[in-house]
Write a sequence for this structure.
């Protein structure tokens, strides 16, 4: 018996976001591998899937980006409940809310009930950008200041050589920079968790800030599925309702290559048992 399908992972739900298709930064190879190696009853696309902002500036659409879209449509066609919740970079899709596009449902936000009865509010996360603008502004100032200080430091080095001045270190500045980034992230998390509690949900699943996270804050689950630009991460729900944050770079090292799993059929019509049956019968065949 061959073990071609050892890497296949089956979940009740999968959340991914911030793929930014249409930009060179999108990790399409890794994402295609992820989509081929995973099956789920529910697949939530939590915004910024296609980067309409960048596409408007410059058209960038290689075949691999098409492959991702085709893969998602195929999953929807083969029985996966695929829900697309637009983000700020694909906000044009927000005008098609409650429309089904090739079996993919488009929703502004979504309430998902886990197998163990937790009510999760799913939303991209840009709706409080105005509230956390202050923290974002500080982080931006931090960036500018850093660039200026880098330039200043070059001159300082020259003067240091000329006048035998002691070395000037960035450590104080870097500490401030980290503090600003942390305050932006915690402002975002705080806003999301507060709104989740107000809506009477047990947790939130969002994206937007490209910072994967799964934790409980003040009794509310805060899940951020990260992104497919740098983190290459996803959130998943197991069949007992347990949530898990996946780092695909770590996982993919241990499982089959794309070629090995590409022949497996999409969808899990009839649930995981049927899917497993299908896989077993396939792996028994020559
Ligand atoms: Mn976003």
């Amino acid at each position: 018996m061959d073990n071609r399908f050892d890497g296949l992972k089956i979940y009740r739900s999968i959340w991914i976001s911030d793929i930014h298709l249409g930009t060179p930064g999108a990790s399409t190879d890794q994402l295609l591998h992820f989509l081929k190696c995973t099956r789920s009853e529910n697949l939530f696309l939590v915004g910024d899937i296609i980067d309409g902002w960048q596409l408007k500036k410059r058209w960038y659409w290689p075949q691999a980006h098409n492959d991702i879209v085709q893969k998602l449509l195929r999953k929807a066609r083969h029985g996966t409940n695929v829900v697309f919740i637009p983000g700020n970079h694909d906000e044009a899709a927000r005008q098609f809310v409650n429309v089904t596009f090739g079996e993919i449902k488009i929703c502004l936000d979504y309430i998902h009930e886990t197998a163990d009865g937790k009510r999760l509010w799913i939303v991209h996360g840009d709706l409080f950008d105005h509230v956390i603008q202050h923290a974002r502004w500080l982080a931006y100032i931090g960036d500018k200041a850093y660039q200026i200080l880098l330039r200043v430091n070059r001159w300082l080095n020259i003067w240091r050589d000329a006048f035998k001045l002691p070395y000037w270190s960035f450590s104080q500045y870097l500490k401030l920079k980290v503090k600003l980034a942390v305050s932006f992230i915690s402002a975002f998390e705080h806003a999301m968790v507060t709104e989740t509690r107000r809506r009477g949900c047990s947790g939130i699943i969002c994206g937007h800030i490209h910072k994967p996270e799964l934790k409980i804050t003040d009794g509310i689950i805060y899940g951020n599925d990260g992104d497919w630009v740098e983190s290459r991460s996803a959130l998943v729900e197991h069949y007992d309702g347990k949530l898990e944050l996946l780092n695909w770079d770590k996982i993919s090292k241990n499982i089959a290559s794309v070629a090995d799993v590409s022949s497996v059929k999409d969808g899990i019509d009839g649930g995981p048992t049927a899917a497993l049956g299908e896989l077993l019968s396939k792996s028994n065949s020559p």
Q: What stands out?
A: The pocket of manganese (II) ion is lined by residues 47-48, 87-89, 124, 126, 208 (CB under 6 Å). The mean pLDDT is 82.
